[in-house]
Amino acid sequence: QLQVEQSGGGSVQPGGSLRLSCTASESQLNFYAVGWFRQAPGKEREGVSCISSNNGGTNYADSVKGRFTIARDKAKNTVYLQMDSLKPEDTGVYSCAVEPYLNCLREGWDDPHNYGMDYWGKGTRVTVSS
How far apart are CA 4 and CA 37, in angstroms? Predict the structure, then answer.
């Protein structure tokens, strides 16, 4: 069974940058769409960004457009979420999720229910504070 692992995160001041990484076992990540989600304290999980497997199409939540960049390194079997110009409201636990047939350019890419329950990373905390 595919195992999803993620790394990165930490604490940073407003305006700073962090990079999150998502990878999977058995070099299979290239065949999956990868979504990044976050959950702030007391709030529901929300979709942040997504990258498709076939056409590499990407999508972003309005709140992060122009500041976050999702990219896939096929040679490293890894998807990155580069987060720049971070704001305190970006604070939360970030998780990556993978799904084989998801089209990130279609409605629903940001719905966590559209990703298989077994294909989620364990989450990593991002704190943006002065």
Answer: 14
| Separation between Cα atoms, residue 72 and residue 75, nearest integer Å | 9
Average pLDDT of span 117-122: 90
Contact status, residue 71 vs residue 30, Cβ threshold 8 Å: no
Q: What is the mean pLDDT of the chain?
A: 94
In contact, 32 and 99? CB cutoff 8 Å: yes
| Contact between residue 85 and residue 65 where contact means Cβ atoms under 8 Å apart | no
Which helix (H) or strand (E) segment is 128 a member of?
Answer: strand 124-128
CA gap 18, 11 in Å, rounded: 9
pLDDT at 55 over 90: no
39, 45 in Cβ contact below 8 A?
yes
> Which tokens is 76 given?
């490293």
Taking the C-alpha atoms of residue 15 and residue 125, their distance in angstroms, rounded to an integer, is: 17
With 80 as the cut, is the pLDDT of residue 1 above it? Answer: no
pLDDT > 70 in the chain, percent = 98
